[in-house]
Amino acid sequence: MKTIEIDGEQVTLNVKPSDSRRAVDVDFKPGEITIGVPHGHTLDPDAFIKQHLDKITKGYQKAKAKINILQDDTILIHGHRRRITVEENQTPPDPPVTLTPDTITIHAKPLEDPNTLLKNWITAETQRIATETLKKHANRLAKPQTIRTRDAPRWGQCNKRGEVVLNWQLATLPPELAEYITIHEALHLKHFNHQNDFHTDLERILPNHRELEKKINNYLAIPPNFQFKRKN
Length: 232
Fold this sequence. Notes:
The chain is an alpha/beta fold. The chain has helices spanning 45-51, 53-64, 114-136, 175-187, 196-205, 209-216; strands at 3-6, 9-18, 25-29, 32-38, 67-68, 70-71, 74-77, 80-88, 97-99, 103-108, 146-150, 156-158, 163-167, 219-220.
């Protein structure tokens, strides 16, 4: 396994073919750097690293400084970090999740996957937040045909069918960031680009939108097929 040393840390280096890229792309995660190479192209990793070492070092340092939404046995909920606990229960409450200021408890039946229960609860909470946000600003936003949640690399997007599609993890973010993402995408139903009219309307609703957008970039989303670490 190839590694590269950054700030005294041995970081795993992966080189993978990429169908979605026309140029070489670099993805950074704590402990890992992945270089995506378009099909049909060859790459000398050593030469590439040597040529772009300063840029790669800065990119990795920036990725390490991000806030992990899921970290070991803790997770952010509404922007506040809580320790995950699991209680086995033959007749769990509905919903099967309870919150305290510092914990989130998953009430799972025997053999039931607590990771799935956690994801389902966060997804429902994201739907609730989005619905309430759109209702709050209904006089300034177009009404979506549907609001969907899914696994996605982006926090949100919309389409010309009138759908707002949100990352299921929005409920993990501070409320003002979840609200910003929802408003941003719903506003695209009226302005399908980032031209002047879009920014004018966004400024009217959220005068601090530029600050909020910068803050979103500080968060590292939960990877697909996640498994939180359960402590005995």
